[in-house]
Specification:
With 173 residues, the protein is an alpha/beta fold. The chain is built from 6 helices and 5 strands, in the order E-H-E-H-E-H-E-H-E-H-H. The structure holds 4'-phosphopantetheine.
Amino acid sequence: MKNIIAIYPGSFDPVTNGHLDLIHRGSKLFDKLIVAIAQNLDKGESLFSMAERKEMLEAMTEELDNVSVDTFEGLLVNYCIQKNANAVLRGIRAISDYEFELQMALMNRKMEPRVETIFMMPAQQYSYLSSRIVREIAKLGGALDGLVPEMVEQRVRDRVARKHISATGKHLL
Ligand code: PNS
């Protein structure tokens, strides 16, 4: 069997239990899995810096020997070649993810035919979960248990509260 090095790219702002579910599945399938945090230019202000996201992902994956965490800038396909990776791992939750994921996978293939995109489904209980929803629930004071690891939950709450104070001068309710 070929040696498969896969890249799992994303924003991970913050890492969710859905991401971790996919990382565990990927680590069983691939020889090596690199979780790669992208500098995402389109998404506006982020909750956590790249270094903070990396630190949280490292803490959450430290028991997985074939998983490492990295950051990258620029095109994903260029990063794949730089890392000798032959696969990109992406999660598909619902049919609504499919159109964007298909566009990205086909465009990446056009730019770099040596890299295949592999889609995996997270466990069903994470099919409605996203980092964006986690950020929104945290801002509005909702419960995050079961959505992100405990350590991440605390950091999300602290960061959201700090951002709220610096934007409004008031404490979150
Ligand atoms: O977690 P996200 O935000 O859905 O991840 C999107 C990501 C980072 C995988 C995507 O935006 C990406 O690959 N960015 C790197 C720049 C790039 O290669 N863009 C062209 C994609 S066809």
